[in-house]
Amino acid sequence: MTTPVTARDRAKAERTDAILRAAAQLFALRGYSGVSLEEIGTAVGVSGPAVYRHFSGKQALLGAVLIKVSLDLVEGGRAVAASVADDEERMRELIRFHVGFALGNPDVIRVQDRDLPHLSEEDGAQVRRLQREYIDIWIAALAPVQPVAQDELRLRVQACFGLINSTPHSTRQAMRSKGTTAAVLASMAYAALIARAG
């Protein structure tokens, strides 16, 4: 039997989500070492000590930010891959999914690029495992449309992520025209994945 969610439970979940969003924004702006729990609390209207009701400390908060986004990517990637029967269209849908994620979450991408070394050993291991799972989803989708060795498939997928992920926080114009940017990125990513070597 499922316990009904109370208004207090909902409020706590909403506050936790708000803390995660504020942490991602502040970490992206100033880096993990340049942000205090007090500043994160202030950003969501609570005291620094109140943040401890949700997270055991700043490192745990960083872990929660990066684990959540990694889980979202794996779950979203699996759902996309399972929903499309055609090989080429499956690959294109995965690209569209990741482009949408990258353009919608530039703060988290910047945090992951820069602050991964600050994770605890346990959280770091979980994030790396989830990242490998996500890459494997892409490799399985790419293999039927790009019949090359496994190592090259992995290289192509990781290079594609680099292309997509670098755009939201490297080009201001990209954030002013998301529709056009998404279309250009998706087209470029697919072309990169299926390009002939040499």
Please outline the helices and strands.
Layout: H1 7-30, H2 37-43, H3 48-51, H4 58-83, H5 87-104, H6 106-115, H7 121-142, H8 150-166, H9 172-176, H10 178-194
Helix pairs in contact: 1-2, 1-4, 1-6, 4-5, 4-6, 4-7, 5-10, 7-8, 8-10
Helix/strand order: HHHHHHHHHH
Number of strands: 0
Q: Structural class, from helix and strand content? A: mainly alpha
Gap between N and C termini: 60 Å
How many domain regions? 1
CATH third-level topology = Tetracycline Repressor, domain 2
Helix proportion? over 70%
Radius of gyration: 19 Å
Q: Looking at the structure, what is the overall shape?
A: elongated
**Looking at this structure, what is the CATH superfamily?**
Tetracycline Repressor, domain 2
Q: If helices are DSSP runs of H or I spanning 4 or more residues, what is the number of helices?
A: 10
CATH architecture: Orthogonal Bundle
Q: Which CATH class is shown? A: Mainly Alpha
